[in-house]
Amino acid sequence: MFAALKRELSRRLLRDQDYRFLFEPPPASEAVSLDCETTGLSVRDDDVVTVAAVKIRGARILASERFEATVRPTARLKPDAIKVHGLREQDVANGRTMAEVLPSLLRFIGSRPLVGFYLEFDVAMLNKHVRRMLGVGMPNRQIEVSGAYYDRKYGDAPPGTEVDLRFTSILKDLGLPVLDQHDAYSDALMTAMMYLTLEDLKARDIRIPRRRARPAMWYGGG
């Protein structure tokens, strides 16, 4: 109920009524896989350098319906971020501003649920700009694939079970290919594959097996 009230308040506070479509019911069985690369890991101080999204319809990834943009950030790229995604200042210097990118991105996403890997961070980075433009953040439902994976594999695990939620570990466990990591579109595509695989496992009520812990060996004294 609280989520519905919050959504209604956001709809009323929407600054630009041309974006009312964000609050409409989403197309049936559709979602959008989203990924951003950034100048660093601080929501407050860092900014987006690339953003990509791909549509999902039913059990299909619509690779032909994709969105990609290089963004000229308002913050300097940090060395640790450059090591991750390989983008340098000169690589993003000619990118569009986020104010130029957002209208097309929001129309691409529409009211569809968002799918992502640690999606909360990506949405927070985008919402800094969305709020500046619309007065409210994106109202889209968020689907976190690491959470869906945890439910399928570790939801019934005993206390003390070692949990591995790394991106490549999930891909390997689900039998999915590893594409070029830390490229926004490739990451969005791989995340979409994770989502569909996990949705299929959920629909068939199949859990992901865990490796059994080795029993402790006991040696008697003599």
What does this structure look like?
- By secondary structure, the chain is of the alpha/beta class.
- It has one domain: Ribonuclease H-like superfamily/Ribonuclease H (Nucleotidyltransferase, domain 5, 2-Layer Sandwich), CATH 3.30.420.10.
- The chain has helices spanning 2-13, 79-85, 89-92, 98-109, 119-134, 145-154, 167-173, 184-203; strands at residues 30-38, 48-57, 60-70, 114-116, 142-144.
- The protein has a 5-stranded mixed sheet with strand order 3-2-1-4-5, sandwiched between helices.
- β4, α5 (119-134) and β5 (142-144) form a beta-alpha-beta unit.
- How would you classify the helix and strand content by structural class? alpha/beta
Number of separate helices:
8
Shape: globular
Report low-confidence residues grouped into runs of 5 or more.
none
CATH topology: Nucleotidyltransferase, domain 5
State the end-to-end distance. 67 Å
Percentage of residues in strands: 15-25%
Identify the strand order in the major beta sheet: 3-2-1-4-5
Query: CATH homologous superfamily, by name?
Result: Ribonuclease H-like superfamily/Ribonuclease H
The total domain count is: 1
Mean pLDDT: 92
Helix residue percentage? 25-40%
What string gives the helices and strands in order? HEEEHHHEHEHHH
CATH level 1 name: Alpha Beta
Give the strand tally: 5
Q: What is the gyration radius calculated from CA atoms?
A: 20 Å
Largest sheet geometry:
5 strands, mixed
What would you say the CATH architecture is?
Answer: 2-Layer Sandwich
